[in-house]
Amino acid sequence: MTADVSITGVRQEFGDFTALHEIDLTIEAGEFVVLLGPSGCGKTTLLSILGGFLSPTAGTVKIGGKDMAGVVPRARPTTTMFQDYALFPHMSLLDNVAFGLRMRGMSRRERNAKAREMLDMVGLADQAKRRPHELSGGQRQRVALARALAVSPDLLLLDEPLGALDLKLRRQMQDELKAIQRKVGTTFVHVTHDQEEAMAIADRIVVMNQGRIEHCGTPEEVYLTPRTLFTANFMGEINTLKVRKAGQGVDSPLGALNLEPTNGTLCLRPENVGLSGQLDLGQAVLQDMAFFGSHLRCHFRPVTAPEMILTANLPQGTRLQTGDQVHLYGNSPVLIAEEAA
After folding, report:
1. For residue 19, with 0-12 CB atoms within 10 Å meaning exposed, 13-18 middle and 19 or more buried, which class applies?
2. What is the pTM of this model?
3. CA dihedral 122, 128, 130, 136 (to 10 degrees)
4. What Cα–Cα distance (Å) separates residue 273 from each residue in 30, 110, 186, 296, 335?
5. What is the pLDDT at residue 165?
6. Maximum CA pair distance of the chain?
7. What is the pLDDT of residue 339?
8. Measured between alpha carbons, how far is 152 from 117 in angstroms, rounded to an integer?
9. Interhelix angle for 108-121 vs 167-184, to 10°?
10. What pLDDT, on the 0 to 100 scale, is given for residue 341?
């Protein structure tokens, strides 16, 4: 099963502190949405409101068209999966996955059949008799996911479920999580502070900051065309230059640039700074360079603005040495107007 979600004017106050400021967000049925932002931005508070663990100070939440006001967590068509998987250590994997179905009064035969189906879906059908302590972190994560999906929720809420895994395993589980969501079709709302994780799994990313939504869009939109300076900086490394209107273009620390006349900030991702391109950034001196496998991460000091550093990710095989002077260019520039910055 799956359901859409409508959040309208949701505000959450804790005494004098406002954790959420009039949040408006619509999530389509079957969509994988990631709430992304730094600690304290309000993403977990919003997830808790969806799950019924908090009642908003103001606003409405509808799941599948039904108003959730006053509906307790156990009565909602939701399941929440936390970073601490909270598996029962004394139970087998089969019994762990079947636990929610047992609480709903399903017969042993039916719930065990459903639990085996869920374990098979996450690749652990042959481990059904084992206990959680016998599993790796990634396997326990799969069991927790199977248990959450066994009760067929309309909405699955995930609170940083991959945070305890190491980098390699986390990336593997990102792929698996996305594949499972596509298979079951359940609406997923996933909280994380990891930008790469968000881009790997989300249909849409909701970037949050200080209790407000900064940007909501596809991973491509949020990364390539950020609407605010916060989003641009939070979504990864970026070069920024203050610019001012100057005739038919803008003036910058690097000189005149042929861009739309705007007062604001020019943003260039490191992969969009190189030795060729559409935007002339002038001469620069290579300060240092490091090999990152897929690219060379270089720091350049512009000749016209020696107090600045421009970061560029250059292709493997680029032949440069510290102290070399080159001509830099930019591609896919993003201008964020001053009022939005």
Report:
1. buried
2. 0.89
3. 0
4. 38, 59, 40, 12, 15
5. 73
6. 77
7. 64
8. 12
9. 120
10. 47
Task: Specify the pLDDT at position 221.
Answer: 96
pLDDT in tens, 65-110: 999 999 999 899 999 988 777 889 999 999 999 998 888 888 999 9
The architecture that CATH gives domain 5-233 is: 3-Layer(aba) Sandwich (3.40)
| Tokens encoding 295 | 């690219």
118 sits in which H/E element: helix 108-121
Strand blocks (E) in the chain: 5-14, 17-27, 32-36, 58-63, 66-67, 78-82, 155-159, 187-192, 204-209, 212-217, 239-246, 249-252, 255-257, 264-268, 273-274, 279-291, 295-302, 310-315, 325-330, 334-337
CB 287 within 8 A of CB 309: yes
- Give the position of tokens 């930008």: 195
Q: What is the pLDDT of residue 307?
A: 94
Tell me how long the chain is.
341
Q: Give the residue ranges of the chain where pLDDT is below 50.
A: 341
The domain ranges of the chain are 5-233, 237-337
Q: Give buried/exposed letters for 79-89 (b at 16+ CB in 10 A, else e).
A: bbbebebebee
Residue that has been written with the tokens 């990631």 in this structure: 34
State the pLDDT at residue 69.
96
Judged by DSSP in three states, 44 sits in helix
